[in-house]
Amino acid sequence: MAIPAPTVVNTDVLIVGGGLGGARAALRARELGADVTLVEKAVVSRAGPMTYVHSQFAPYKLLEGDELLKWIEEFVIGANYLADQDWIEIYLREGYFRVQELVEMGVPFVRDEHGNLKYSIVRGHKIGTTLGVDGRICMEILRREMKSAGVRLIEKVMVNDLLTADGRYPTQDRVSGAFGVHVRTGEPYIFKAKAVILNTGPLYPKIHYAFVDHCTGEGHAMAYRAGARMAGMEFAQYAAWSYFNRAFFTPGQAKIQGIGAKFINAQGEEFMPRYDPIWGNMSGLFQVARAIATEYIEGRGPCYVDMRHCSDEDIQVLYTVAPSVHRAFQEFNIDPRKDLLRTDSFILIGTGSSSGMWVDLRARTTVEGLYGVGTCTHLPHMMTGISGSSLSTYSNVGGYRAGEDAARLAASIPAPPVHDRQVQELIKRFFAPLERKGQTRPSDAWMAIGEVTARAPFALFKNEERIARTRDELRELRRTLIPKVTAPDIHEVVKANEVANYLQMAEVVCEAMRARKESRGELIRVDYPYVDNDEWLKWVFVQRRDEGDEPAISYWDLPYDRYPIKAPSGKTPITYPIPEAYR
Fold first, then answer.
1. 331: CB partners within 8 A, 6+ apart
2. Which of 119-133, 246-260, 364-378 shows the lowest per-residue confidence on average (mean pLDDT)?
């Protein structure tokens, strides 16, 4: 395959990823007069987590005083006391306005019989409210708004690396743009920009249809290679339990919980209160998946999701907000008002509630000119937690802030330099699988990764030795298998780069898991079977400081001396039972 000559695009603000956060960033930057280019790996309004199920955490009014503190407290507790309370306050105050702006744009949030917005409660909340909507329609409206505002949309281009003003990784200077490739034609793209905003979505493996299979961690990996500080990587464990009747999978797990679904085992016991006495059936995705797996291991399976008691009105709301659930139930002839649904769970390395670039209150990373928005960041308002709909509103708030700051930065500086040597090296590396001979395909690498990371001792019952062994096996795959991956066409070249990005981040995840010497949220360590609020009310940072593979680990103590919501002191044993064979 002959590689076409690169297309060069000059812009003030480059946004990589066309989800809710990217769209809000683009609109705000354009509003402030910046030339804005948004690049999407697939098609805006038909890609990313936003498009298959969607809700907005939405305060029903502007919160103030003691009421605001109660909402902050709910987030802090739900985040296992690791959330940045400064971010939560911004999120709650500004979230109200950002959601109302979507209403004004015409986003058709669910309404009651009187035509009023229908606020509801979902997983992880008892007072915080949510608005539901079909995410595809929401993104179609935002796409229309961007086109009308003059945002330049470039679709089906995979951005794989950042460009730096000094031509180095990690950079000692600033970002100066990005390098991408059209996923159908193979045409390289060179984007020259004064500011870059990443909205590339979560870190997911491409080995199960539960995942948004084009969100494989490009944003995470390119930011890490450029020297950005990563945070919350130890909590990068994706769990799912809505694999029903061993026949089909649906999204919408938080919405199913939100209408009152119960989890029962083969004896008919409602088991979640035993694993999570506070939240019970409204517990987090990871907690539910882990509990289901443990019920099977200890002989009380199969497990079921029970919605037979849910009202017709609530079932209809579920179908409206998560239409793919409705289609699946129709296809497999399931009536949730009458039928139990068998559930099987799994846990792999991937974005659960956090993992990604550290960002400040303006959505800036530690690399000058680089911003992060949405689930490619460390999600500072929760870090590790069980909120079922707060990610989209964080994208809404963070995207607006990133677009505002990036536009102002772009107006104040000249265009930074782009180095041709760096560009040529990136092109050569991206297309390298085309030049190799052999039969190893990206799918072989994904299967090898799955075999390493899905084993129960690592997935469910981590300790120092199991984490280190998994890291070493992943490192060996990156050293020996990735250089053998071949690609006969551009489609497979894209897949080869996806698996390489994911694998690099999976190693970083293991390093962060080793660094946290306690159990909290998604991270359960059997050698530290307790939450330690005396020593571990802190974030773990992972950063590439030189051109080698060894990451630098550092820590940040949360400033509880000034936070309004305090954390209890001491160590609290975890409630999950650990089978003797895995201790």
1. 248
2. 119-133
**Do 423 and 163 contact (CB within 8 A), yes or no?**
yes
**DSSP assignment of 559-578, as one string?**
-TTT-SSPPPPSEEE--S--
pLDDT of residue 283: 87
* Residue 333 φ/ψ region, left for φ over 0, alpha for ψ in the -120 to 50 degree band, beta for the rest: left
Nearest alpha-carbon partner for 226 in 283, 277, 169 = 169
Torsional sign, CA 279, 281, 283, 287: positive
Tokens, residue 151: 């945002």
Q: How far apart are CA 481 and CA 181, in angstroms?
A: 23
The angle at the Cα of 332, spanning 326 to 338, to the nearest 5 degrees, equals 75
Q: What are phi and psi of 343, to 5 degrees?
A: -125, 135
Rg of the chain taking only CA atoms, in angstroms: 23
- Residue 255 near residue 310 (C-beta atoms within 8 A): no
CA separation, residue 356 to residues 198, 218, 345, 474 (Å): 11, 11, 24, 19
CA distances in angstroms from 383 to 104, 217, 312, 394, 458, listed in the order given: 30, 18, 35, 12, 21
Segment 489-516, tens digit of pLDDT: 999 999 999 999 999 999 999 999 999 9
Beta bridge mates, 213:
none
Residue with tokens 């802030």: 401
Token duo for residue 549: 């593979």
Q: Let me know: does 261 contact 305? Beta carbons within 8 Å.
A: yes
The residue to which tokens 């008919």 are assigned: 268
pLDDT in tens, 298-351: 899 999 999 999 999 999 988 988 888 999 999 999 999 999 999 998 888 988
The pLDDT tens digits for 527-547 are 999 999 999 999 999 999 887
CA-to-CA dists, residue 391 to 110, 209, 258, 375, 378, angstroms: 19, 21, 16, 7, 11
Exposed e or buried b per residue across 225-255, where buried means at least 16 C-beta atoms within 10 angstroms of its C-beta: bbbbbbbbbbbbbbbbbbbbeeeebbbbbbb
Q: DSSP 3-state assignment of 207?
A: coil
237-339 folds as Flavocytochrome C3; Chain A, domain 1 (3.90.700)
pTM above the 0.90 mark?
A: yes
Cis peptide before 564 (omega within 30 of 0): no
